[in-house]
Each structure stands twice: as structure tokens, then as C-alpha cells.
Amino acid sequence: MLIEKVLNNNVVITRNENGQEVVIMGRGLGFRMTAGKPVDQRKIEKIFTIDNNNEVDNRYRELVEAIPHEILLVTEQIIASAGRLLEGQLHPGIRVSLADHIHCAIERCIQGKCVKNAMLWEIKKFYGSEFSVGADAIVKIKQASGIQLNEDEAGFIALHLVNAQLNDDMHNTMDVTRLIHDIVSLIKYDLRIEMDENTVSYQRLMTHLRFFAHRLIHSDTVKSDDDSLFVSVRQEYPESFACVGKIYLYVEKQLSHYMTKEEMMFLTIHVERVRREHQIG
Predict the structure, then answer these.
(1) Where is the PRD domain (predicted)?
(2) Which superfamily, per CATH, for 172-280?
């Protein structure tokens, strides 16, 4: 492969055998190199194919010119780890948003301007798996850059991962997190229970609430023409259904959204599982 453009000492642009534009990273890969010279295969650490008609790819191409290559590489390591440990697919845009965030976080830390994460408690509670990846990311970032970011940044990284899972922006994800917090608080207060975060029923409730809250924020609903199961659930789980009735009123007041019978039914089932597990425990 021949170099088409040197972006910096560690990143060059070339083309693959199919004629597609390719970004190649590696320490010293672009040092004293010019267009037309062959790529030093021994120095290659990461290769990315760029689609110029893809907005995310174009943003990433701009990013590689502005961000140190070790930050781009550690971002890839974090994304790979998240892909192995988290459920579902991560939106490709995470490569851009997370690298940009980590770069800015490091710059702020160097300047002594660390940002407090006001939602750290909620993130730990409701996005435990994502926070674990975020905490591990802080270790990886220290190894790559020598900069020690704090626990607040682990929480911000976790939110970026949640964004990528939901394919949403940070503002909406924070709204989703607040909504989950309020619903969980209502469940605990109404049923007078404490939830064991290590149980399967709790994890299933959190997963359900995450996507339920996401739909609410986007005014999306789940509907069904079959009322028979709804009636059965209402009769079989009266305490949990009554609790969900209070959630219905809260959602109506806060978001002007009227929960469908389908939404109430599924939430009742999840609440009932948590309630029963508390009784057994």
C-alpha cells in the first residue's frame, strides 16, 4: 500500500485493494513519510476503512487528525471490551463520540478542570455492567496516556455506552436515567421493598425499564388488540398492578403519555417478579 496523505506522525491515509480509502494507525507510521511512499507494515496497529458517503466515517476521519493516536487506540480497546461484555449492538458512532469525550476529559484533567458527574449514583445502580466497563476503561486510559481520570469519568463513559446501545444522544439518555430512577423509587416506596441488585429479576426489570423509558422519551408505544392477558395479569397480581397504576399517573403527569394496556401488563409482570423475590428473601 502506498501513502496518499500523512495526517500526523502516527496516522496515514492510503487505499486498499478495492480502492477504498483506508486510515492506518501506528506509532511513527507517518514520521518523515510523504505521499507515494510505501506503508511500513511492521508499524501498523489499526486499520479502518472509510466510506466517504457515511457521516460517521467522515467525522472519524476528521477526528484522527486532531486526537493523539494512543487515545484512538485505547478507545478501540474499550469498545471491543464493551462488545464482549454488554448485550446488544453498539452504534458505530460510539467510535467518534467516545474518542472525542476521552480526549476532552484528559485535556480537562490536565488543566485541573475535572467535571463532577451528578448522576454517578444512578449510573452505578441502573447501568452496572456499563459502569464496570467504564471503570476498566479508566485503567486502560491511564496505561495509554499516563493520566488518571476519576470515577466520575467512568460514569460518563458508561453513559456513552448506553447511548450506543439505545442509538440515542446524551441528553435523552440522561432523561431516561432520571425516569428510571423515579420509577424505581416509586416501586420501592409503594411496595415497601428493597431491591437486590444481584438478582435476575432486578436485572430484567432494569433492562425493561431502560427500553420502556427510551420509548416514553421518544413518544413510542407498544399496543395490542388482545386484552385477555392484560385482564389475567391485573387479576393475578393486584398489588403490582396497583403499583403500576401509580406509575401510569406519574408518566401521564410528567410526560403527557398514556401507558397502553400492553405496557402496563409487561411492567406489572416485572414488578411482580421483584416483589415476590423480596418476599422469599
Answers:
(1) 66-170, 171-281
(2) PRD domain (1.10.1790.10)
The pLDDT of residue 97: 92
Closest CA to 240 of 281, 201, 196: 201
What would the pLDDT profile of 33-78 be if each residue is shown by its tens digit?
889 999 999 998 888 887 777 787 788 888 888 888 899 999 999 9
Q: Which CATH number fits domain 69-167: 1.10.1790.10, 2.40.50.140, 3.40.190.10, 1.10.357.10?
A: 1.10.1790.10
Residue from 49, 44, 47, 13 nearest 29 by CA: 44
Task: Give the residue extent of every domain in the chain.
Answer: 5-66, 69-167, 172-280
